[in-house]
Design a protein that fits this description.
It comes from Pestalotiopsis fici (strain W106-1 / CGMCC3.15140). The protein has 17 helices and 23 strands. The protein is an alpha/beta fold. Bound molecules: nicotinamide-adenine-dinucleotide.
């Protein structure tokens, strides 16, 4: 494990950094007592700065407060943006070799503190420790990937015959606001930070106020990495106060945002008169899983269950609407139900859901389903006032109407609907009958159908006989209400750089 020098100057970092195992963290939280939660601080120009306004962070598995998260004011945001703007002048001129080394150093520091990150991510978000470990691996991959991606850039040149040569030149776009949601906090924030720094931009990041812990630990990694002052800044806070001030700042030249569709729309409105601003909006999903009657049932059930219930269904890519060809519908429902009962148990593959408001949101959809007389194949409406953590067992619903809000809106919890289809055409129609278009799962052995159906599904990402397989150069993003812009490899380069064309006469 990497050691922490006393220069950190922030008590909360020193305390949290000692919790290098689940046992240590749990023992720390027990002895800490509710009167002395960790007090997180913003990270600006390589220094931790205390804030005056705070909100509570809870451990979803117990419901107990363990930290206080700054709600940064517009003034604190402006200060961070100003520092990032100053740092941009020199950072944007560094060579890719220099930037690559910093990214590798950051990856190495996260790797050295792997379990520390996983433990706090699990305690803060409610996810299982196993799931958190996978996401820490992926965060490391984000830095490693972009650290080498930038070393091998090509550019396009064209000839105007006998007249001129033209070529494309890219430069970093400026200071970026990097805003992330609460479901995969470290993984999704680093998916923005890594390309942002790699392509020569500086950043002010704002993680979700619901899960700030891993971003807070990441600040210490940035400090230890020796990144030049002001290149990477983190302000904590909510959307209306902190996030809104950040995206509106005229000094911010781009926003890379992942979160809900309503917030994406708000950010578009708030930046509408800043036409220069790059916007990449990765938004919500309500993703279909199509199961055709030629599948290997055991494998199909495993994939559909993982797509529905991984991370308690709190992944934007989760397949929460399962459609099954009628000839295997009954067998699928019974095999799927047994598999979920055996494999998705509380404290095993199921963690707790992230917050009380989110618990209540999921609960309200289950009340709606009950009022509409859906069948609860397994699962039930959880207690209105949970006492020992925010636990919701998997819910499988049948008999939900296609027009029901349960079927149309993103619940973002451990709730899946199963319905029938007869023909391929109907399957495509049902899959596309939704305002969102982020991802889809297609389960079939028929090679021709894979392309025929796969290319008709209105989703940015279609997984065939698999789910959540990721290659970091692949364009990531959704269609319809699931967002605009793509990130990953050269698509991230488009987000974080400006391309201009030089014309050189013959
Ligand atoms: P959210 O939109 O409520 O919040 C996301 C982030 O935006 C938070 O940091 C929040 O503080 C900030 N924010 C809120 N209002 C803001 C404003 N007016 N200006 C600037 N920032 C603001 O989303 P959430 O509840 O944190 O996350 C769940 C949503 O994220 C789901 O809809 C899920 O599908 C989506 N998501 C999408 C992807 C993807 O890649 N498409 C990945 C993960 C999650």
């Amino acid at each position: 494990m990497g050691s922490l020098s006393t220069e950190a100057g922030c008590q909360a970092i020193r305390e949290a950094w000692n919790c290098t195992s689940l046992e240590k963290a749990e023992s720390f939280l027990t002895t800490q007592g509710s009167s002395a939660p960790l007090e997180l601080e913003n990270f600006v120009s390589n220094k931790f700065n205390p804030s005056t306004q705070h909100l509570d962070a809870i451990n979803p598995k117990t419901g107990k407060v363990f930290a206080r998260v700054p709600v940064s004011s517009a003034q604190e945001v402006d200060e961070a943006v100003k520092n990032a703007t100053d740092a941009f002048k020199s950072w944007s001129k560094t060579t890719v070799a220099v930037r690559s080394k910093y990214l590798q150093k950051i990856a190495q520091l996260i790797q050295e503190n792997h379990e520390l990150f996983a433990v706090w991510e699990s305690l803060d978000q409610g996810k299982t420790l196993a799931r958190a470990r996978v996401e820490v691996d992926r965060a490391i991959s984000n830095f490693n990937y972009f650290s080498t991606f930038i070393l091998h850039q090509e550019t396009a040149a064209r000839m105007i015959d006998g007249v001129a040569l033209t070529y494309e030149h890219r430069s970093p776009a400026g200071v970026f606001a990097l805003i992330s949601p609460w479901n995969m906090p470290l993984y999704l924030l680093t998916w923005k930070i890594a390309p942002c720094l790699a392509f020569g931009c500086t950043a002010v990041a704002k993680p979700s106020e619901v899960t700030s812990m891993s971003a807070f630990l990441l600040c210490e990694v940035f400090r230890q990495s020796g990144l030049p002052s002001g290149v990477m800044n983190v302000v904590f806070g909510d959307g209306p106060t902190t996030g809104s001030a950040l995206v509106r700042s005229p000094l911010v030249k781009g926003v890379s945002f992942t979160g809900g569709t309503a917030t994406g729309i708000q950010i578009r409105k708030d930046t509408a008169d800043q036409i220069y601003k790059h916007l990449s909006l990765e938004l919500g999903g309500k993703n279909p899983t199509l199961v055709f009657d030629d599948v290997d049932l055991t494998k199909a059930v495993e994939t559909a269950a993982m797509a529905a219930f991984e991370n308690q269904g709190e992944i934007c890519l989760c397949g929460s609407r399962i459609y099954v060809q009628s000839s295997i519908y009954d067998r699928f429902v019974s095999t799927f139900t047994s598999y979920v009962q055996d494999n998705y148990k509380r404290g095993g593959r199921m963690g707790a859901v992230v917050s009380l408001p989110h618990y209540r949101k999921i609960r309200s959809y289950l009340e709606l389903a009950a009022s509409e007389e859906a069948q609860f194949v397994i699962g039930e409406i959880p207690a209105a006032d949970p006492q020992d953590g925010l636990w919701i067992d998997p819910v499988i619903l049948t008999g939900v109407s296609t027009s029901s809000r349960v079927m149309r809106e993103e619940i973002f919890g451990p709730v899946v609907t199963i319905a029938k289809f007869e023909t391929e055409e109907e399957a495509v129609e049902l899959a596309n009958d939704n305002p969102n278009g982020l991802a889809a799962v297609l389960l079939t052995k028929d090679g021709a159908r894979i392309r025929r159906v796969g290319e008709q599904i209105e989703a940015g990402l279609v997984w065939v006989n698999c789910w959540l397989v990721r290659e970091l150069g692949t364009p990531f993003g959704g269609m319809k209400n699931s967002g605009t812009g793509r990130e990953g490899g050269e698509y991230s380069r488009d987000v974080f750089t400006v391309v201009r064309t030089l014309h050189i006469p013959m």
